[in-house]
Amino acid sequence: MGIKAYRPITPAQRQKTTEDYDQITTKKPLKSLTKAKKQRSGRNNQGRITVRHRGGGVKRHYRIVTYKLPENLTFTVEEIEYDPNRSARIARVKDENGVYYYVIADTKMTKGTTFKTGKGIEIENSNRMALEDIPVGTFVYAIELHPGKGAQMVRAAGASAQLMAKEGGYATLKMPSGEVRKVLVSCLASIGTVSNLQHQNIKIGSAGRRRRKGIRPTVRGVVMNAADHPHGGGDGGRHGSGKAPRTPWGQLTLGYRTRRNKKTNKMIVRSRHEGKRR
Length: 278
Prior knowledge:
Layout: E1 3-5, E2 17-19, E3 34-36, E4 61-63, E5 74-81, E6 90-94, E7 100-104, E8 114-116, E9 128-130, E10 139-141, E11 143-144, E12 151-153, E13 161-167, E14 170-174, E15 180-184, E16 188-191, H1 207-212, E17 268-270
Antiparallel strand pairs: 1-2, 3-4, 5-6, 5-8, 6-7, 9-16, 10-13, 10-16, 11-12, 13-14, 14-15, 15-17
């Protein structure tokens, strides 16, 4: 997998890069595993905008990805597909009973390869098993946060977590963010690294490409009027001096703590912010 640059014939193409899509084997998704996806433009179920700068973009169908595969089965990879709803590639897999699923693809999955789920299976790439059966030092992805709930962690392109230790019924994982946390050893995980390693190195290159992704322009607060933002107003001179950075609604930002779920603090051995503190 690599990055494709262009011979520029327009100004936008001078910086633009794309993925080479070499891993993808088909362009057409399986109809039974897709459904319509409504564009909500960053709005919640009350119609209020909760994520700003969203709207427009091309229409997409949602691929029904399975995060909780049946255990003690062998799966064969039929196709590797592009998914417009996530950064990683997805694999169309078929089990021994002829049932199809979409799963997150890892770097070693190719058309025709097989993998297994359950207990007593080999320690090989793509195999899915409990953390208690995986050797310390192994890189894993699609990890359960609670046993039986399905993969919730480490699902983005190029991500993997390292199993650091197992002690007292808990496994210690080093997450892609740098956080070190504990989960129960009965939680399932897949061995390997999520596909599409070069995703983070892509340069969008043009405003139009961002709009097709459904991302609208972001305007800085200091160039707004005072009525529209706490940073706004002024005589056109030096902006924002003497003000603590704030959100458009006046909440302090930069260093202002937003973590609310204190009950999981006991599971975090080392915060992802630890290295940044002086």
